[in-house]
Amino acid sequence: MKYAYYPGCSLTGSARKLDKGVRTIFARLGHELTEIPEWNCCGAFEYGDRRELVEMSRTNLSKAAPVTESEAIVAPCPACYKNLREASAETAHPVRHPLEILGKEPLSPSLIKRDLKGEVFTPYYGCILMRPEATAISDKQVMERIITGLGGEIEGEKVKARCCGGNQFFINRRSTERLSRMVLEGSRGTIVLFCPLCHMALTSFSKGRRIIYFTDLLLHVTGDGKRL
Amino acid sequence: MPKIEALAELAGYRREDFSVCLGCKICGSVCTINDLSVSANPQELLMKVFLQKELKGDDPVVANCTNCYNCTEACPWKIRIPEVVRALRKELAVESPFEKAFKASVALLGRVYEPYVLLRALPFLVKEGYLAYVTRWTEYITFHLPHKVKGAGLSQPGKEVIAGREPKARDRKAKRAP
Q1: A125 closest CA partner among A53, A197, A176, A181
Q2: Chain B partners of A175 at a C-beta cutoff of 8 Å?
Q3: pTM for the complete prediction?
Q4: Which of A26, A176, A208, B13 could bond A165 through an S-S bridge, CB–CB 3.0 to 4.6 Å?
Q5: What is the CATH number of the domain that holds A49?
Protein backbone atom coordinates (compact mmCIF):
# COMPACT_ATOMS: atom_id res chain seq x y z
CA MET A 1 0.00 0.00 0.00
CA LYS A 2 1.15 3.54 -0.68
CA TYR A 3 0.78 6.23 1.95
CA ALA A 4 1.57 9.92 2.15
CA TYR A 5 3.69 10.53 5.22
CA TYR A 6 3.56 13.53 7.54
CA PRO A 7 6.44 13.22 10.04
CA GLY A 8 5.86 16.49 11.91
CA CYS A 9 8.49 18.64 13.59
CA SER A 10 9.39 16.41 16.56
CA LEU A 11 10.12 13.48 14.29
CA THR A 12 12.81 15.49 12.50
CA GLY A 13 14.56 16.16 15.81
CA SER A 14 14.01 14.81 19.31
CA ALA A 15 11.74 11.99 18.12
CA ARG A 16 13.88 10.98 15.14
CA LYS A 17 13.90 7.48 16.57
CA LEU A 18 10.13 7.28 16.09
CA ASP A 19 10.49 8.55 12.51
CA LYS A 20 13.05 5.87 11.68
CA GLY A 21 10.93 3.25 13.40
CA VAL A 22 7.78 4.10 11.46
CA ARG A 23 9.63 4.18 8.16
CA THR A 24 11.37 0.86 8.82
CA ILE A 25 8.30 -0.99 10.07
CA PHE A 26 6.14 0.23 7.21
CA ALA A 27 8.83 -0.84 4.75
CA ARG A 28 8.97 -4.30 6.37
CA LEU A 29 5.22 -4.58 5.99
CA GLY A 30 5.61 -3.74 2.30
CA HIS A 31 4.17 -0.24 2.47
CA GLU A 32 5.58 2.74 0.66
CA LEU A 33 5.70 6.02 2.55
CA THR A 34 6.08 9.20 0.53
CA GLU A 35 6.91 12.21 2.66
CA ILE A 36 4.64 15.16 1.93
CA PRO A 37 6.86 17.72 0.19
CA GLU A 38 7.54 20.95 2.06
CA TRP A 39 5.16 20.11 4.86
CA ASN A 40 4.76 22.75 7.56
CA CYS A 41 4.17 22.60 11.31
CA CYS A 42 0.66 21.49 12.28
CA GLY A 43 0.54 24.00 15.13
CA ALA A 44 0.26 21.33 17.83
CA PHE A 45 -1.67 22.88 20.76
CA GLU A 46 -0.01 26.25 20.64
CA TYR A 47 -2.48 28.32 18.67
CA GLY A 48 -5.52 29.98 20.21
CA ASP A 49 -7.17 30.74 16.90
CA ARG A 50 -8.76 27.59 15.57
CA ARG A 51 -9.00 29.05 12.07
CA GLU A 52 -5.27 29.57 12.03
CA LEU A 53 -4.69 26.04 13.31
CA VAL A 54 -7.01 24.43 10.77
CA GLU A 55 -5.46 26.49 7.98
CA MET A 56 -2.02 25.14 8.85
CA SER A 57 -3.27 21.58 8.46
CA ARG A 58 -5.23 22.41 5.32
CA THR A 59 -2.01 23.69 3.82
CA ASN A 60 -0.39 20.35 4.60
CA LEU A 61 -3.29 18.43 3.11
CA SER A 62 -3.09 20.48 -0.08
CA LYS A 63 0.63 19.69 -0.29
CA ALA A 64 -0.23 16.02 0.00
CA ALA A 65 -2.67 16.24 -2.87
CA PRO A 66 -0.17 15.38 -5.63
CA VAL A 67 0.45 12.02 -3.96
CA THR A 68 -2.64 10.79 -5.74
CA GLU A 69 -2.06 7.09 -5.41
CA SER A 70 -1.73 7.20 -1.68
CA GLU A 71 -4.22 5.37 0.41
CA ALA A 72 -4.13 7.84 3.26
CA ILE A 73 -1.94 10.33 5.08
CA VAL A 74 -0.03 8.71 7.92
CA ALA A 75 0.86 10.92 10.89
CA PRO A 76 2.61 9.25 13.85
CA CYS A 77 2.65 12.17 16.31
CA PRO A 78 -0.73 12.26 18.10
CA ALA A 79 -0.96 16.07 17.98
CA CYS A 80 -0.21 16.18 14.25
CA TYR A 81 -2.60 13.30 13.67
CA LYS A 82 -5.44 15.08 15.47
CA ASN A 83 -4.90 18.42 13.74
CA LEU A 84 -4.63 16.88 10.28
CA ARG A 85 -7.60 14.61 10.84
CA GLU A 86 -9.80 17.50 11.96
CA ALA A 87 -8.86 19.52 8.90
CA SER A 88 -9.35 16.56 6.56
CA ALA A 89 -13.11 16.42 7.03
CA GLU A 90 -13.71 17.76 3.54
CA THR A 91 -10.75 16.46 1.62
CA ALA A 92 -10.22 13.30 -0.34
CA HIS A 93 -7.36 12.16 1.88
CA PRO A 94 -8.21 10.27 5.02
CA VAL A 95 -5.71 10.74 7.82
CA ARG A 96 -4.62 7.66 9.73
CA HIS A 97 -2.51 7.00 12.75
CA PRO A 98 0.04 4.20 12.28
CA LEU A 99 -1.67 2.23 15.06
CA GLU A 100 -4.85 2.10 12.95
CA ILE A 101 -2.89 0.51 10.13
CA LEU A 102 -0.69 -1.75 12.27
CA GLY A 103 -3.73 -3.00 14.18
CA LYS A 104 -5.38 -4.31 11.05
CA GLU A 105 -2.29 -5.95 9.71
CA PRO A 106 -0.75 -8.62 11.90
CA LEU A 107 2.97 -9.18 11.49
CA SER A 108 3.44 -12.20 9.27
CA PRO A 109 5.23 -15.13 10.94
CA SER A 110 8.15 -14.70 8.55
CA LEU A 111 8.81 -11.22 9.98
CA ILE A 112 8.74 -12.27 13.62
CA LYS A 113 12.24 -13.08 14.84
CA ARG A 114 11.60 -12.79 18.60
CA ASP A 115 8.68 -13.04 20.98
CA LEU A 116 7.96 -11.05 24.13
CA LYS A 117 7.49 -13.96 26.52
CA GLY A 118 8.31 -13.18 30.13
CA GLU A 119 8.28 -9.42 29.56
CA VAL A 120 5.83 -6.98 31.13
CA PHE A 121 4.54 -3.90 29.31
CA THR A 122 2.30 -0.94 30.05
CA PRO A 123 0.84 0.27 26.76
CA TYR A 124 0.39 4.00 27.29
CA TYR A 125 -1.89 5.87 24.88
CA GLY A 126 -2.10 9.18 26.74
CA CYS A 127 -4.78 11.67 25.79
CA ILE A 128 -4.96 12.51 22.14
CA LEU A 129 -5.14 9.01 20.69
CA MET A 130 -8.05 8.37 23.06
CA ARG A 131 -9.94 11.67 23.15
CA PRO A 132 -12.00 13.38 21.85
CA GLU A 133 -13.92 10.52 20.29
CA ALA A 134 -14.31 12.34 16.96
CA THR A 135 -10.59 11.99 16.26
CA ALA A 136 -9.61 9.14 18.58
CA ILE A 137 -8.34 5.87 17.16
CA SER A 138 -11.18 3.37 17.02
CA ASP A 139 -9.33 0.36 18.41
CA LYS A 140 -8.28 1.37 21.91
CA GLN A 141 -6.80 -2.05 22.69
CA VAL A 142 -4.56 -2.27 19.67
CA MET A 143 -1.21 -2.20 21.47
CA GLU A 144 -2.46 -4.72 24.05
CA ARG A 145 -3.59 -7.12 21.32
CA ILE A 146 -0.31 -6.95 19.45
CA ILE A 147 1.82 -7.30 22.59
CA THR A 148 -0.17 -10.22 24.02
CA GLY A 149 -0.16 -11.82 20.56
CA LEU A 150 3.63 -11.79 20.79
CA GLY A 151 3.59 -13.34 24.26
CA GLY A 152 4.06 -10.21 26.35
CA GLU A 153 2.21 -9.51 29.58
CA ILE A 154 0.07 -6.38 29.97
CA GLU A 155 -0.14 -4.16 33.06
CA GLY A 156 -1.08 -0.58 33.87
CA GLU A 157 -4.57 -0.60 32.35
CA LYS A 158 -5.69 2.12 34.76
CA VAL A 159 -3.14 4.66 33.59
CA LYS A 160 -3.15 3.97 29.88
CA ALA A 161 -5.34 6.99 29.08
CA ARG A 162 -4.24 9.24 31.94
CA CYS A 163 -2.69 12.58 31.12
CA CYS A 164 1.09 12.80 31.70
CA GLY A 165 0.91 16.60 31.68
CA GLY A 166 3.34 16.75 28.78
CA ASN A 167 1.53 19.69 27.29
CA GLN A 168 2.50 21.78 30.32
CA PHE A 169 6.10 20.55 30.37
CA PHE A 170 7.61 23.74 28.99
CA ILE A 171 5.13 25.95 30.79
CA ASN A 172 5.10 24.59 34.32
CA ARG A 173 7.31 21.55 34.72
CA ARG A 174 6.19 20.95 38.31
CA SER A 175 2.65 20.23 37.12
CA THR A 176 3.99 17.82 34.55
CA GLU A 177 6.17 16.14 37.14
CA ARG A 178 3.21 15.38 39.41
CA LEU A 179 1.06 14.05 36.59
CA SER A 180 3.86 12.02 35.03
CA ARG A 181 4.74 10.45 38.36
CA MET A 182 1.14 9.24 38.71
CA VAL A 183 1.43 7.52 35.35
CA LEU A 184 4.81 6.05 36.25
CA GLU A 185 3.58 4.79 39.62
CA GLY A 186 0.52 3.16 38.07
CA SER A 187 2.48 1.40 35.38
CA ARG A 188 4.67 -1.69 35.44
CA GLY A 189 7.43 -2.99 33.23
CA THR A 190 8.31 -1.24 30.01
CA ILE A 191 6.12 1.71 29.06
CA VAL A 192 5.23 1.56 25.38
CA LEU A 193 3.85 4.68 23.72
CA PHE A 194 3.58 6.69 20.52
CA CYS A 195 3.64 10.33 21.61
CA PRO A 196 6.98 12.20 21.53
CA LEU A 197 5.85 14.61 24.24
CA CYS A 198 4.70 11.83 26.58
CA HIS A 199 8.03 10.11 25.90
CA MET A 200 9.96 13.20 26.93
CA ALA A 201 7.81 13.96 29.99
CA LEU A 202 7.87 10.40 31.35
CA THR A 203 11.58 9.98 30.60
CA SER A 204 12.39 13.25 32.38
CA PHE A 205 10.67 12.18 35.58
CA SER A 206 11.43 8.49 35.69
CA LYS A 207 14.48 6.99 37.27
CA GLY A 208 15.67 4.30 34.97
CA ARG A 209 12.31 3.07 33.74
CA ARG A 210 12.32 1.74 30.22
CA ILE A 211 10.13 3.99 28.07
CA ILE A 212 10.02 3.08 24.41
CA TYR A 213 8.10 3.88 21.26
CA PHE A 214 5.79 1.17 20.03
CA THR A 215 7.90 1.07 16.90
CA ASP A 216 10.97 0.19 19.04
CA LEU A 217 9.04 -2.84 20.24
CA LEU A 218 8.15 -3.85 16.68
CA LEU A 219 11.74 -3.35 15.53
CA HIS A 220 12.89 -5.62 18.38
CA VAL A 221 10.36 -8.28 17.48
CA THR A 222 11.31 -8.14 13.82
CA GLY A 223 14.96 -8.69 14.65
CA ASP A 224 16.69 -5.37 15.29
CA GLY A 225 19.23 -4.97 18.09
CA LYS A 226 19.97 -7.24 20.98
CA ARG A 227 17.46 -6.13 23.57
CA LEU A 228 14.69 -3.60 23.91
CA MET B 1 -11.74 40.98 27.81
CA PRO B 2 -12.54 40.24 24.21
CA LYS B 3 -16.18 40.11 23.22
CA ILE B 4 -17.73 36.70 23.65
CA GLU B 5 -18.57 36.46 19.96
CA ALA B 6 -14.94 36.99 19.00
CA LEU B 7 -13.68 34.59 21.65
CA ALA B 8 -16.15 31.87 20.69
CA GLU B 9 -15.20 32.33 17.06
CA LEU B 10 -11.52 31.91 17.92
CA ALA B 11 -12.38 28.53 19.42
CA GLY B 12 -14.51 27.58 16.40
CA TYR B 13 -17.84 28.18 18.11
CA ARG B 14 -20.69 30.65 18.15
CA ARG B 15 -21.86 32.24 21.36
CA GLU B 16 -25.13 30.28 21.42
CA ASP B 17 -23.21 27.01 21.30
CA PHE B 18 -22.27 27.57 24.94
CA SER B 19 -25.86 28.17 26.01
CA VAL B 20 -26.54 24.44 25.97
CA CYS B 21 -24.30 23.84 29.00
CA LEU B 22 -26.44 22.13 31.62
CA GLY B 23 -24.20 23.04 34.52
CA CYS B 24 -23.64 19.40 35.42
CA LYS B 25 -19.97 20.10 36.17
CA ILE B 26 -18.87 16.68 35.00
CA CYS B 27 -16.08 18.54 33.19
CA GLY B 28 -14.79 19.60 36.60
CA SER B 29 -15.11 16.09 37.99
CA VAL B 30 -12.90 14.58 35.33
CA CYS B 31 -10.46 17.48 34.88
CA THR B 32 -6.82 16.40 35.07
CA ILE B 33 -5.78 19.46 37.04
CA ASN B 34 -7.69 18.17 40.08
CA ASP B 35 -4.69 15.87 40.42
CA LEU B 36 -2.54 18.95 40.94
CA SER B 37 -4.58 19.84 44.02
CA VAL B 38 -6.00 22.72 42.01
CA SER B 39 -9.73 23.20 42.20
CA ALA B 40 -10.86 22.78 38.62
CA ASN B 41 -14.12 24.23 37.44
CA PRO B 42 -14.18 24.42 33.66
CA GLN B 43 -17.95 24.83 33.72
CA GLU B 44 -17.65 28.05 35.70
CA LEU B 45 -15.04 29.24 33.24
CA LEU B 46 -17.36 28.49 30.34
CA MET B 47 -20.17 30.39 32.02
CA LYS B 48 -17.89 33.32 32.74
CA VAL B 49 -17.08 33.40 29.04
CA PHE B 50 -20.74 33.12 28.11
CA LEU B 51 -21.82 35.82 30.54
CA GLN B 52 -18.88 38.05 29.61
CA LYS B 53 -17.49 38.15 33.12
CA GLU B 54 -13.93 39.14 33.76
CA LEU B 55 -11.36 36.40 33.35
CA LYS B 56 -7.73 36.46 34.33
CA GLY B 57 -4.73 34.56 33.09
CA ASP B 58 -4.19 33.04 36.50
CA ASP B 59 -7.60 31.34 36.48
CA PRO B 60 -6.69 27.77 37.47
CA VAL B 61 -8.06 26.22 34.29
CA VAL B 62 -6.52 28.84 31.99
CA ALA B 63 -3.15 28.50 33.72
CA ASN B 64 -3.05 24.71 34.09
CA CYS B 65 -5.13 23.11 31.30
CA THR B 66 -3.17 20.18 29.88
CA ASN B 67 -5.33 19.75 26.76
CA CYS B 68 -6.25 16.23 27.84
CA TYR B 69 -9.85 16.51 26.57
CA ASN B 70 -11.25 14.56 29.52
CA CYS B 71 -13.82 17.35 29.82
CA THR B 72 -14.87 17.16 26.17
CA GLU B 73 -15.24 13.41 26.33
CA ALA B 74 -17.40 13.57 29.47
CA CYS B 75 -19.48 16.59 28.42
CA PRO B 76 -23.02 15.70 27.28
CA TRP B 77 -22.55 18.26 24.47
CA LYS B 78 -18.92 17.44 23.75
CA ILE B 79 -17.90 21.07 24.14
CA ARG B 80 -14.21 21.45 23.34
CA ILE B 81 -13.28 23.35 26.47
CA PRO B 82 -9.49 23.04 25.92
CA GLU B 83 -9.92 25.02 22.72
CA VAL B 84 -11.88 27.71 24.54
CA VAL B 85 -9.02 27.80 27.05
CA ARG B 86 -6.48 28.13 24.24
CA ALA B 87 -8.46 31.04 22.79
CA LEU B 88 -8.45 32.63 26.22
CA ARG B 89 -4.71 32.08 26.62
CA LYS B 90 -4.21 33.85 23.32
CA GLU B 91 -6.47 36.76 24.21
CA LEU B 92 -5.10 37.13 27.73
CA ALA B 93 -1.53 36.83 26.39
CA VAL B 94 -0.73 33.95 28.74
CA GLU B 95 2.20 32.31 27.01
CA SER B 96 5.41 30.90 28.36
CA PRO B 97 8.69 31.96 26.71
CA PHE B 98 8.86 28.45 25.28
CA GLU B 99 5.50 28.83 23.55
CA LYS B 100 6.64 32.17 22.12
CA ALA B 101 9.85 30.58 20.86
CA PHE B 102 7.83 27.73 19.30
CA LYS B 103 5.71 30.20 17.35
CA ALA B 104 8.73 32.28 16.39
CA SER B 105 10.31 29.20 14.84
CA VAL B 106 7.15 28.37 12.92
CA ALA B 107 6.86 31.96 11.70
CA LEU B 108 10.50 31.96 10.57
CA LEU B 109 10.91 28.48 9.12
CA GLY B 110 7.44 27.01 8.81
CA ARG B 111 8.46 24.31 11.26
CA VAL B 112 9.65 23.91 14.82
CA TYR B 113 13.43 23.70 14.74
CA GLU B 114 14.17 22.53 18.24
CA PRO B 115 17.70 24.01 18.62
CA TYR B 116 16.29 27.43 17.70
CA VAL B 117 13.42 27.09 20.17
CA LEU B 118 15.71 25.91 22.97
CA LEU B 119 18.21 28.70 22.39
CA ARG B 120 15.55 31.36 22.19
CA ALA B 121 13.90 30.10 25.39
CA LEU B 122 17.24 29.41 27.09
CA PRO B 123 17.03 32.07 29.83
CA PHE B 124 13.61 30.70 30.83
CA LEU B 125 14.80 27.10 30.70
CA VAL B 126 17.87 27.87 32.82
CA LYS B 127 15.94 29.95 35.34
CA GLU B 128 13.23 27.31 35.72
CA GLY B 129 15.68 24.46 36.24
CA TYR B 130 15.15 22.48 33.03
CA LEU B 131 18.87 21.84 32.66
CA ALA B 132 18.54 19.25 35.43
CA TYR B 133 16.93 16.92 32.87
CA VAL B 134 19.55 17.26 30.15
CA THR B 135 21.34 14.06 31.18
CA ARG B 136 18.09 12.18 30.57
CA TRP B 137 17.60 13.80 27.18
CA THR B 138 20.61 12.29 25.45
CA GLU B 139 18.49 10.18 23.11
CA TYR B 140 16.68 13.33 21.93
CA ILE B 141 19.80 15.15 20.88
CA THR B 142 20.42 14.85 17.16
CA PHE B 143 22.24 17.13 14.81
CA HIS B 144 20.31 18.38 11.85
CA LEU B 145 20.23 21.63 9.95
CA PRO B 146 17.09 23.71 9.85
CA HIS B 147 14.85 23.42 6.84
CA LYS B 148 12.96 26.46 5.72
CA VAL B 149 9.66 25.45 4.21
CA LYS B 150 9.02 27.03 0.82
CA GLY B 151 6.60 29.86 1.32
CA ALA B 152 7.13 29.97 5.12
CA GLY B 153 5.52 32.70 6.87
CA LEU B 154 2.76 30.41 5.79
CA SER B 155 -0.16 30.38 8.09
CA GLN B 156 -2.62 33.02 7.13
CA PRO B 157 -5.81 32.58 9.12
CA GLY B 158 -8.69 31.70 6.83
CA LYS B 159 -11.58 34.11 6.80
CA GLU B 160 -14.22 31.59 5.90
CA VAL B 161 -16.10 29.36 8.29
CA ILE B 162 -14.02 26.42 9.39
CA ALA B 163 -14.88 23.28 7.52
CA GLY B 164 -13.04 21.02 9.91
CA ARG B 165 -14.78 22.24 13.04
CA GLU B 166 -16.58 20.03 15.44
CA PRO B 167 -20.27 19.45 14.76
CA LYS B 168 -22.39 22.01 16.54
CA ALA B 169 -22.81 21.22 20.19
CA ARG B 170 -26.55 20.95 19.84
CA ASP B 171 -26.28 18.50 16.95
CA ARG B 172 -25.13 15.59 19.02
CA LYS B 173 -25.80 12.97 16.41
CA ALA B 174 -23.76 14.67 13.74
CA LYS B 175 -20.53 12.85 13.10
CA ARG B 176 -17.40 14.10 11.51
CA ALA B 177 -16.01 12.21 8.56
CA PRO B 178 -14.18 10.04 8.18
Answers
A1: A197
A2: 33, 36, 64, 66
A3: 0.91
A4: A176
A5: 3.40.50
Residue-number span of the structural domain to which A50 is assigned: 2-96
Q: Is residue A79 part of a domain?
A: yes
B69 with A44: Cβ contact below 8 A: no
Contact B156 A55 (CB under 8 A): yes
For the stretch A95-149, pLDDT in tens is: 999 999 999 988 999 999 999 999 999 999 999 999 999 999 999 999 999 999 9
Number of Cβ atoms within 10 Å of the Cβ of B91: 17
Residues from chain B that touch A41, judged by Cβ atoms under 8 A, are 106, 110-112
Q: Which of A48, A56, A171 sits opposite B90 (nearest CB)?
A: A48
> How many A/B residue pairs have CB atoms within 8 Å?
186
Q: Is B173 on the interface with A (CB under 8 A)?
A: no
Give, in order, the Cα–Cα distances in Å from A147 to each of A116, A132, A211, A217, A221.
Answer: 7, 25, 15, 9, 10
For residue A160, the 8-state DSSP code is: T
Are both B103 and B86 inside the same structural domain? no
Q: Which of helix, strand or coil describes residue A7?
A: coil
- The rounded distance, in Å, linking the Cα atoms of A99 and A74 is 10
Has residue B130 been placed in a domain? yes
Number of domains forming the structure of chain A: 2
Q: Tell me: do B113 and B38 sit in the same domain.
A: no
**Considering only CB atoms, which chain B residues are within 8 Å of A133?**
73, 78
Q: Which of A45, A178, A204 sits opposite B136 (nearest CB)?
A: A204
Residues A74 and A7 in one domain: yes
Q: How do the pLDDT tens digits run along chain A, 228 residues long?
A: 899 999 999 999 999 999 999 999 999 999 999 999 999 999 999 999 999 999 999 999 999 876 656 689 999 999 999 999 999 987 778 999 999 999 998 899 999 999 999 999 999 999 999 999 999 999 999 999 999 999 999 999 999 999 999 999 999 999 999 999 999 999 999 999 999 999 999 999 998 899 999 999 999 999 998 777
Is residue B147 in some structural domain? no
pLDDT at A67: 62
Domain end position, chosen among B50, B66, B91: B91
Question: Does some domain include residue B159?
Answer: no
Q: How many domains does chain B have?
A: 2
Q: How many other CB atoms are found less than 10 A from the CB of residue A60? A: 29
Residues forming a β-bridge with A5:
A35, A74
Q: Quote the DSSP letter at residue A171.
A: T
> In B, residues 22-61, which contact A (CB 8 Å cutoff)?
32-33, 35-36
